[in-house]
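Posting here for the record, re: nicotinamide-adenine-dinucleotide.
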Amino acid sequence: MSRETVLITGGAGFIGGHLVEQLLKKYHVVVLDNLSTGKISNLPSSPHLDFLFGDVSKVSDIDNAFEIYTFTYVFHLAAVASVAASIEKPLETHQINMDGTIHLLNAAKKQADTIQKFVFASSAAVYGSEPTLPKKETSVIAPMTPYGIDKLASESYVIAYSRLFGLKASAARFFNVYGPRQNPDSPYSGVLSILTSCVERVSNGDEKAIFNIYGDGTQVRDFVYVDDIVSGLILLAESDESTSEVFNIASGENHTLLEVIAIYEEIIHQKLPLRFESARSGDIHKSYANITKIKNIGYRSQTTLREGLAKYHAHETSQEVMVLI
Ligand code: NAD
Ligand code: UD2
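Prediction output follows.
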């Protein structure tokens, strides 16, 4: 039997690559990506995977994909994922993070009869720093950066297209995602990718390795393992109840940075060298999610922070062994 076809924009990125891996078990997967931050090495090799080099801010690149294929699901992950980049270049970011979403929705609208769900990757950044916790989908929305503003506008377009044109669509607000293949190279990379890279250096006896804590380490986050994000996205795609709705995807747990560090120290049986720096300006002290809405349609966060960190560390260690071989 021939496989149904799924489009993943941004499929060569950190989260996209994990989604591709999972969807290849059942579907033919088409990745549309301009490799600005994504990498071909994030993609498995498979006869069921097609890679289209393309830019979501170019209508012709999107139309080309929709002329070749008829999609059952569309996952829209392509974006400038860095808040810092969005502050530095708001207009260029907007052309990708906002206009790109509209171009994709316009193309998907023409396949509204066959697309079972269009799923958009939004962010907890839409909540901003308003202090009420935990964040529910109905909480105050107050994005503070071009990145958050474009995510909010995009998710509003996604839900509007769902209601106006019968394109079945949902949006997912990810909290702090972590796991293998997250890039630790920028100071604004996810804190757990930076911490994990420090853990690897310490485990290998690197005496210069040090982890900078911005603030006193009591900041709280809802860290969600990438496999749980992937299962949440697939649930939203396959569920009838998710249509025209926005959902948080998170772990539902919350931890201080100091707690995370203590868990890693237990995993590697070593103390981590820490340096306390001033808190970053604009840093949100506490952010965590209420995940009741997505749980009500069947989501279960499968990975505790301890399990996720242990898996992440094991993955990084095995990569080092492969490099040595
Ligand atoms: P990532 O940078 O690894 O992935 C983004 C992908 O999009 C990359 O492969 C990149 O090459 C591609 N891309 C960028 N601009 C493009 C363009 N114009 N045309 C085509 N492809 C383009 O980031 P990620 O962490 O995997 O993020 C995936 C999605 O999830 C993004 O939409 C991001 O905003 C969202 N998100 C991520 C997090 C997180 O903690 N990582 C949190 C909230 C939301
Ligand atoms: C996340 C998103 C950001 C935006 C924001 C909205 C990531 C990587 N960032 O920012 O894009 O959506 O949420 O609320 O997903 N820290 C250190 N040392 C380091 C790096 C970070 O102490 O080397 C601290 C940092 O100051 C912050 C916490 O760790 O208090 C988490 O930092 P982050 O950049 O991983 O994520 P966050 O929640 O600030």
